[in-house]
Amino acid sequence: KKATNPESCPKRRKGNKLCDSKNKLRIAIDCSFDDLMIEKDIIKLGKQIQRCYSINRHMDDPLQLHLTNLQGKTLNRMNGFVDGYQNWDVHLKSESLIELFPPAEVVYLCAESEQVVPRRN
Questions:
Q1: Of 73, 65, 71, 113, nearest in space to 96 by CA
Q2: DSSP character for 59?
């Protein structure tokens, strides 16, 4: 539901930059499969990335948000339709997830998986 009054929208809290956040949990959006996506899916991915960024930037202690393997169709979409994303407080990386993070520190989630992640408290 969109707010009709811009004054009711949450503002970015001062001092909640990634580097200052107490929350060091890293979340990576892996863009490496964009060569398998049709244009409609690339558009959806761009919107999902924007939404993730927006939610994260309004948190008191934002997560460490990474966009990995940002190149190809996704990068073209971001360059063409997402003004100012280069100035976002996120880690924008052309490297792959494997190059950036040790495998022991990665939990890879995808909608197509038959495995269910146990609930964590």
A1: 71
A2: S
Distance from C-alpha of 53 to C-alpha of 63, rounded to nearest angstrom: 10
How crowded is the C-beta side of 37, counted as CA atoms within 13 Å?
A: 16
**How much is the pTM?**
0.79
| Residue 35, CA distances (Å) to 27, 42, 69, 74 in order | 22, 9, 11, 9
Q: Walk along the chain (121 residues) in steps of 10 and give the mean pLDDT of each run.
A: 42 66 89 94 94 92 93 94 91 95 88 79 61
Quote the CA–CA distance of 57 and 98 in Å, as a whole number. Answer: 26
Neighbours of 31 (CB within 10 A): 27
Sign of the alpha-carbon dihedral angle for 88, 94, 95, 97: positive
Q: Rg of the chain over CA atoms, in angstroms?
A: 16
